[in-house]
Amino acid sequence: MKEQPIIEIKNLHKAFGKNKVLKGISLRVNKGEDLVILGRSGSGKSVAIKCLVGLLEADRGKLEIFGTDITKLNYEGLNKIRLKIGFMFQNGALYDSMSVRENLTFTLKHHTRHLTEENIEQQILEALESVGLQDAIDKMPSELSGGMIKRISLARTIIIKPEIIFYDEPTAGLDTITAQEISELILSVQKKYKTSSIIITHDMICAKMTGNRIIIIKEGLVHAEGTYEELENSTDPWVKSFFFATNQYAMGPGPTV
């Protein structure tokens, strides 16, 4: 018997006034899978994720998480689902007035009640160790580099032990080496915590490193789906355009004349 997907979107529609952003997309994420979603700016990638966590209300369609259609849930029911979901925001979204320790403590206390101080400290250290930043525990966000902020954001995401993680442009704004380190961390988190993930990215190297499967959205619909290698070898000119810049980068600069 085929295992039920942990996330399934069926015929999702979402418009803002006359602007129809999602026009009936359907996709599924299997347990333990990292699904990458690609698409040009404005194609609806982030809108789909926001609908999945209830930040936006779908106009039409089914949004099933753990086999439950969240469009049918009340506020309390939706919150129970959210407790099993982590979200890594593009800008890190740390509280500037709180230290790293305080940022993680706030998230943990908000998610799990009645924890002892010893338990909180233990879980904070474990999360920071997972991202290689135990030494940053008492630093303020203003003292952190862009890559460190992404790592702390990931630590804050995994500290609640989510079953699902949504990554919104996890490598945006980072240099190539740091971006690869974040991609490696995403893989490490999947392996350690057995998470299922959706990764929204424009970074094709991140997509190649992290994606078990890739979906490309075009004009509010799923245009193509497959592994990185399958899509890279596609004969569709529009699909191939996503891979052209990456291949040019890999080959290095051309000969000088």
TrEMBL record:
Gene3D superfamilies linked: P-loop containing nucleotide triphosphate hydrolases (3.40.50.300)
Annotated SMART domains: AAA
GO molecular function, one term: ATP binding
Keyword check for Signal: no
InterPro entries linked to this entry: AAA+_ATPase (IPR003593), ABC_transporter-like_ATP-bd (IPR003439), ABC_transporter-like_CS (IPR017871), P-loop_NTPase (IPR027417)
Residue ranges occupied by any ABC transporter domain in the UniProt entry: 7-244
SUPFAM superfamilies: P-loop containing nucleoside triphosphate hydrolases
Claim: Metal-binding is one of the keywords in the record: no
Superkingdom: Bacteria
Keyword terms of this UniProt record: ATP-binding, Nucleotide-binding, Transport
UniProt protein name: ATP-binding cassette domain-containing protein
Organism expressing this protein natively: Flavobacterium circumlabens
